[in-house]
Amino acid sequence: MTKFRQAFAALSLTALLAGGALAQTAADLRNDQNTPEDVLVYGMGYAGQRYSPLTRINKGNVKKLVPMWSYAITDNRGAEAFPVIKDGVIYTTSHNATMAVDAMTGKQIWRTNHEYPPETLRVVCCGIVNRGVAIYEGKIIRAVLDNHIVAMDAKTGKEIWNTASPEPATIANGYSMTSAPLIVNGVVIVGVAGAEYSHRGFVEAYDVNTGKQLWRLYTIPAAGEPGSETWQGDSALTGGGSSWVTGSYDPDLDLVYWGIGNPSPWNPRARKGDNLFTNSIFAIRPKTGERVWYYQASPEDPFDFDAVQTPVIATIKVDGKPRKVVIQANRNGFLYVLDAKEGKLLAANAFEKVNWADGIDLKTGRPKVTEAFRDALAGKKVTIWPSVSGGINWQHVSFSPKTGLLYMNAMHIGMTYEAEEPPKLALGRPSGPGTVKRTTVTDDPNVRGYLKAVDPLTGKAKWATPYKSPNWSSTMVTASNLVFTGVMTGEFQALDADTGKILWSFQTPSGIIGQPVTWEKNGKQYVTVMSGIGGVYALRAGDPNLANVPAGASLWTFGLFDK
Question: What is the rounded CA–CA span in Å between residue 235 and residue 224?
Answer without folding.
Answer: 13
